[in-house]
Write a structure and sequence with these properties.
- The chain is α+β, with helices and mostly antiparallel strands and about 190 residues long.
- Helices cover about 25% and strands about 30% of the residues.
- It has six helices and ten strands.
- The protein has helices at about 10-20, 35-45, 60-65, 80-85, 120-130, 180-185; strands at about 25, 50, 75-80, 90-95, 105-110, 115, 135-140, 145-150, 165-170, 175.
- The strands form three sheets. It has a six-stranded antiparallel beta sheet. A two-stranded parallel sheet has the order 1-2.
- A hairpin with a 2-residue loop joins strand 5 (about 105-110) and strand 6 (about 115).
- The longest helix has 12 residues, at about 10-20.
- One of its GO terms (cellular component) is chloroplast.
């Protein structure tokens, strides 16, 4: 559906759900708190969502007060002395409020490279707790899709065990490791 005025995108989204009963809605640019709230409402109705939101990385989305609710929201929690000592953290920590609206997320690094977070909730939790999120790098090299599972370096090497698995796709077949399907890999 056309959105004549970008300030009314949330109304057009609700109209699409109410009048057309779609199975999937594609949203170009969720940019405001109202649009994010509408996306959450649509997802709670069981409609599949595909959406874009601008930021440099997932971290930008997590820390954006208008959009952070899309990834479950972030809240400051005060821990008791025993719990803070058990976790080895300060008494005030950030935690995710609830479930993410989206199962996965894709960061567009360049025209030929994507960073795929197959579990957005796990990525957000890693970011909030200062750990290294795991993701797949998908690159298009001369018509061949290569994917590498890896994690960002957020904390010193002594705290992170970097796990890297390389998967190469040729003619829709993974070699040699076939445990990840093409659909799960990048959605191409």
């Amino acid at each position: 559906m056309q959105v004549p005025d970008s300030d009314m995108q949330h109304n057009v989204l609700i109209e699409a759900v109410e009048n057309h009963m779609p199975q999937v809605i594609v949203i170009d640019e969720i940019g405001t708190k109202l649009e994010a709230t509408t996306a959450i409402t649509i997802a709670q109705r069981g409609i599949q969502l595909v959406a874009t939101a601008h930021g440099i990385t997932i971290d930008n989305l997590v820390m954006n007060p208008s959009l952070e609710m899309l990834v479950g929201g972030i809240q400051s929690v005060t821990l008791g002395d025993d719990e803070a000592n058990r976790r080895g953290v300060q008494k005030s920590v950030l935690e995710r409020k609830g479930p993410s609206t989206f199962d996965c997320a894709v960061e567009i690094i360049s025209r030929v490279e994507l960073r795929v977070h197959t579990s957005l909730e796990a990525t957000v939790e890693a970011i909030v707790y200062g750990r290294s999120p795991k993701y797949q790098i998908c690159k298009l090299n001369e018509g061949v899709l290569d994917a590498t599972l890896q994690s960002d370096q957020i904390v010193p090497d002594s705290f992170v065990k970097k796990s890297v698995t390389t998967i190469e796709m040729k003619n829709d077949h993974l070699t040699p490791d076939k445990h990840i399907s093409k659909d799960r890999l990048c959605g191409f």
